[in-house]
Write a structure and sequence with these properties.
single chain, about 120 residues, mainly alpha, two-stranded antiparallel ribbon, 5 helices, elongated
């Protein structure tokens, strides 16, 4: 009969963390490529956009439903211009307008209108 070590759940999590850290150190390029590819998937884009909202101070009860509304919104709520893409040079990409003091969401605006609002 072989001998097996019995670990608590906490020990298992800690051993897994150590194993993952060692793997990442050995496979930095693989991990970097994986994250780059994942960031282009719909799930990756959603995660990155919501993370940016949180970093910039947007407070929301349901980020998922707000994200769905965000991607389905086609026009600026202020000037009604059709949204463009980031980097297209028009300044018409989607922006989240929110109160910087309370973090409360206000509107989906184009970048130009968001800047005008201050």
């Amino acid at each position: 009969m072989g001998r097996f070590a019995i670990y608590s759940e906490e020990e298992k999590r800690e051993r897994k963390k150590i194993h993952q850290k060692k793997w990442r150190e050995k496979n930095k390029e693989k991990e970097k490529e994986y994250h780059k590819e994942w960031g282009q998937t719909p799930a990756g884009k959603k995660t990155n956009i919501i993370a940016r909202w949180k970093i910039r101070g947007l407070i929301c009860e349901n980020y998922n439903s707000l994200y769905i509304e965000y991607i389905n919104r086609e026009n600026c709520e202020e000037c009604n211009v059709k949204f463009g893409e980031i980097g297209d040079g028009t300044g018409r990409h989607r922006c989240m307008d929110h109160d910087h003091e309370t973090g409360e969401f206000r509107n989906f605006l184009c970048c130009s209108c968001n800047i005008k609002r201050g």
